[in-house]
Amino acid sequence: MNAAYITRTGPPEVITCGELPAPQPTRSQCLVRVTAVDVNPIDIYWRGGMVPAAMAFPFILGHDLAGTVVETGPDVKQFRPGDRVWATNQGFAGRPGTFAEFAAVEETWLYPTPPNVRDEDAVAVSLVGVTAHLGLVSHARLRAGETVLVAGGAGGVGSCVVQMAKALGARVIATAGSDAKAAACRALGADRAINYKTEDVAAAVKSFAPNGVNVWWETAREPDFDRTVALLAARGRMVLMAGREARPPFPVGPFYVKDCALHGFALFNAAPEAVRAAAEDINRWLATGALRARIDRVLPLSEVVAAHRLQEESTVGKTGALAGKIVLKV
After folding, report:
1. For 233-249, what is each residue's pLDDT tens digit?
2. Does 245 share its domain with 175?
3. Is 2 exposed, middle or buried (0-12, 13-18, 19+ CB in 10 A)?
4. CA 12, 13, 14, 15: dihedral to nearest 10 degrees?
5. How would residue 296 be classed by pLDDT, with cut points 50, 70 and 90?
6. Dist. CA 213–CA 229, nearest whole Å
7. Are residues 255 and 314 in the same domain?
8. 135 and 261 belong to one structural domain
9. Same domain as 172, residue 137
10. Contact partners, residue 275, CB within 8 Å, separation at least 6
11. Looking at the structure, do residues 137 and 246 belong to the same domain, yes or no?
């Protein structure tokens, strides 16, 4: 089968598109004919060796997929050949990556794709959507009527947080780095969108939510805790999802006297049951249009090197060039 893989870590040019043996499903796995995958920041960190990761070479890249089941192991009960499915959280803990024509995936990590949802859209919201759901529902326990601030609301995860928070009945403030991205946040449902390069964020937040923000979703790797804690409401919650090496100052006193809470989490630590609960909500929202994929461009898998280079420039180089996910057609 054709696959995009590496035999060592390094720059995008270490990626090879070539032939590897097709996997054989075990008793509890489905063999999926992959049609679409996407590029995530974590892919860049792993491929570049920026984050320590256990990889057996040749290592197939990618953590998400959408496609069609072509074969099932004898213990598989939920799926059968011909079923359209999507998956995330692959490429971890010995599970193979997804940038290949075929992938053998445990039934417990597969979810049905709604009939009216394209594979490109399903895969584009897979990792970012589950991440957003885990943070809002499992960790922050967002309630209807609360106010959520999404720092970076036009990004991959941020755009899902905006839409999911609205679907859960929250009021949403989103920040973005340009007028165009602020407009995109409003189109996704944000009640207030702030261009942080031209507006006073603190003043705008206080005007919209004078009693403070109930949930602050932070996408930056170097959070400004002093500013954030000052804008949190009593019993406010802050969600962190980036910044492995970050060591910013933290205002302990102002934080604890307001009974605030700080939630840090990583998708790869999530149990299959938690991811499945998120997938069920994601499927329902995708099917009804309450959740829409934000895709910057669709490329063939053969352009994986260019896709990784672009993602690295946007994420690590902070160019902000991408306005959504890069999807690769297999």
Report:
1. 999 999 999 888 889 99
2. yes
3. middle
4. 70
5. very high
6. 9
7. no
8. yes
9. yes
10. 88, 89, 109, 130, 134, 267
11. yes
